[in-house]
Protein: Fucosyltransferase
Amino acid sequence: MRYTEHESIDAMLLERRGDEEASAVKSAAYATKDTMYKRKKCTVLLVILVICASFLGIVHLLSNAPEFNQYRILRAYQQHVQNEATAVNAGRPRTILLWNSFFKNKRWGFEEDTLGPDYFRSKMNCPVYRCDLTNNRDFLPAIEMYDAVLFHVAEPFPLLQSVPHVRAPQQLYVFALMEPPGETKHVLSDEGGFYILTMSYRLDSDLLWPYQMFEDIETGAVVAPALHTNWRQVPDVWNDTSVWQLWAGKTRMAAWFVSHCETLSKREKLAAALQQHLDVHIYGKCGNFSCPYTSSACDELLDTSYKFYFSFENSLCNDYVTEKLYNAMKRNVIPVVFGGADYSRFVPPHSVIDAEDYENAAELAAYLRYVATHPEEYMRYFWWRRYYRLSYRSPFCDLCEKLHSVPFMQKTQTYTDIEKWWMGHQCRFESKINF
Structure:
C-alpha cells in the first residue's frame, strides 16, 4: 500500500507515539516493581526490628526476673544498703527522748543528760551513730518532733503530764523494761495500742536489752543470747590453768550474795534445802555472812575460796537472765543457775549447772559434791573461755539504726494488747526441782 507524504508523516508520528507509550508503560512497570521491592524491603526490616526489640525486651525482663537473677538482685540491694548506711551517718540526727526515770535515775545510767552522735560512735561503738539521746523534754521545740520516746515501765508515769499530750504519726513509743512482769508498775490493760516497739530482756523483743552477750573470739560474731544458737562442741578433757592454780585454795563449797529474801521463785527455800546437804554460805541480810558490798573482796572470795556460786533469779520467767549469772561467769567459779530461761540460748553448754535439771535438792547436792571432788570434771566447766568472751552491745545502737532505716520506718506495727504480750504465759510459780 502506498501512502501520501502526509499519510507517511502521520504514520511515523503514530509509530513514535506508540513507542513512547510503550516505553512509558514499561517505565511505569519498573517503577511499580521498584516501589513494591522497597516496600517489601521496609516490611522485612520492620519485622526484623520488631523481632530484635522483642528479643531485647525478653532479655531485659529475664535479666530482672527474680527467679533467674536472685543473687544479682540481692548483691545489688546489699550494695544499696551499704551505700545507704554510709550516707546515713551524714544525715539528720534522730532524736530519742527518755520520758521517765530508770529507777530514780533520770539519765538511765548514762554520763550526761544529753548525748550526741559522738557518744554513740566513740562510747557505744554504734555502726549507725547519728542520734541524740536526752531526758530533756525541751531539747526540741515540741514533743512530737522526737523520733522515739522511751517509757520505763518499771517506774510509774510522772504525776504531771503522765504521757505526751501530742503524738506524731511516725513517732515510735518504746516499751522499755529489764525487770520481769511482776515488777511492772503500769496498768498495761490501759495501754493497748500505745507502744510501737518493745525493748527488754526477752528474745522476742524488737530491741533486745540483755545484761551481757557471748561473742565468738575468732569471728567476733555474737552467738548468744539468741533463739537459735550454734555452740562449739564441748571437749572431753580440759584444763584451765588459771582455775587450776586456784584449786588448792578452793576449800569452801558454795556462796550466795543476796539481799532480796522473799521472792516469787522461792529461791530462798531452794537454798535452805541445799543447806541440808551442803555447806552453803549466804552473804547479805538474808544470811549469816557479810563482806563489803562496794568492795572487790566479795568477788575475790569466789576466785580464791569457793567452788560454786548460786545465781538464783527472783522470778521463773522466760528469758529472764540477769547480771547475777554473768558476774559469776567472770570469776573462777562455777555458777549454779535457777531461773525460767532456756540457758542453752544464753550461755555455752557445760558452763553452768542448772538446778532444774535435777529431781530434787538432794540429787543436785550429790552432783555438786561429785564435781567438787573431781578436779578434771570441774575444769571442763571453763572450756568455753578458749572460744568465747563476754561482751555488750547497747540496745540504743539498734534503736538508732532502726530510726535511720527507711524500710523499718515504712513498716507499720503496734502492740494492741501489750498486757497479753508481756504477761501472758511468761512466768511460772512452780519450779521443776522439788525442795
